[in-house]
Amino acid sequence: MDEIAHHAGSRNSDGNVPNANWNDDRFNLNYYQLADINSGMQQIRSATERLATNMPIQGTAADIMKMAMIAVHAGLHKVSPSAKLLMQVHDELVLECPKSDADRVSKFVQEEMESVAKLKVPIVVEAHVGDNWEQAH
Question: What is the reported pTM?
Answer without folding.
Answer: 0.70
